[in-house]
Amino acid sequence: MKVKVLYFASLREQLGVTAEEVELPGGITTVAGLRSHLRSRGGKYEHLDKGAIRAALNQDMVQPSAAIKAGDEVAFFPPVTGG
Fold this sequence. Notes:
The protein is α+β, with helices and mostly antiparallel strands. The chain has helices at 9-15, 31-39, and strands at residues 2-7, 19-23, 54-57, 60-62, 73-77. It has two helices and five strands. The protein starts with a strand and ends in a 6-residue tail after the last strand.
């Protein structure tokens, strides 16, 4: 299954990439599973393990347990603060 992954704000800067197509191994069916798979790449992807990373699925905010399917767009970004 292939999904499009977008990174925003400081995550984009830390990873050095704004978006990528990711082919997921079988058994990964949730946003949490995708995030875990990305972290398992190691190196710069370990930034996905820091803090309260938020996720959107097809432009709607979701919980980590949200189901994903082929062709979905998943965005990860750090919490937003305002002032």
